[in-house]
Design a protein that fits this description.
single chain, mainly alpha, 9 helices, extended
């Protein structure tokens, strides 16, 4: 008990000392402010900004307009893509359970969206084939077990709908997208593309001109 009391006392003393330091600092600032005012200057006090924790996804408008004009996606496919927004993991675009954060299976996606599993499966397969969604398998599992043991995560292409900061995307996912390169292979030339700078920690979205410049540099190496 004596040790607990001593601990409380030491914490209280530390708090008092901290308060005294703050008071001394503030009095110094006030004195300097008075001097500044006399000479026609003003010290501006910084206001504390509250951080907005609202989660959001942003549409990549130029790409969506391009896909509409090219009629690359159906109205049903566009609708499905946008309903996935609440399930996207920040800066990764993986499709996860909004509560647990765990990767979702086809059945769980269907359950969340209140759709039939069959129609959800067909929609996801069509979007994967078009390069709008991705399903990345664990190659090591296939080699060891001959089948998938853990869940295969689904990702939505951040060039269409991006959850989080478009300049801080998970680089591994972007590299896998660039490697598969489905949209480019079928002639879909999106105005905004995902790239990873050499040795870059994050992926990001850039204009197509920048994307082509980077592709050219990588091929010349």
């Amino acid at each position: 008990m004596d040790e607990i009391v001593k601990l409380k006392q030491s914490l209280q003393q530390a708090e008092l000392k901290a308060k005294k330091r703050i008071e001394i600092d503030l009095s110094t600032v006030n004195a300097e402010e008075a001097k500044a005012n006399e000479q026609g200057f003003m010290i501006v006090r910084q206001r504390k900004r509250t951080v907005n924790q609202t989660r959001f996804s942003q549409t990549i408008d130029q790409n969506i307009a391009y896909l509409c004009q090219e009629q690359y996606l159906t109205s049903a496919e566009f609708s499905f893509i946008f309903t996935l927004a609440p399930m996207l993991k920040m800066n990764v675009n993986a499709i996860v359970d909004p509560v647990s954060g765990q990767y979702c299976s086809v059945s769980e996606i269907a359950s969340f969206l209140k759709r039939s599993r069959q129609k959800t499966s067909e929609m996801i397969s069509a979007l994967i084939e078009k390069g709008i969604m991705y399903e990345f398998a664990n190659v090591h599992e296939l080699k060891i077990y001959g089948r998938h043991v853990t869940r295969r995560p689904f990702f939505l292409n951040p060039e269409i709908l991006c959850c989080g900061d478009k300049n801080r995307l998970q680089s591994g996912i972007i590299q896998l997208m660039i490697h598969s390169n489905i949209l480019e292979k079928v002639g879909v030339k999106l105005p905004i593309k995902a790239v990873v700078e050499p040795h870059g920690q994050y992926g990001k979205l850039v204009k197509r001109k920048k994307f082509l410049e980077m592709q050219k540099k990588q091929k010349s190496k």
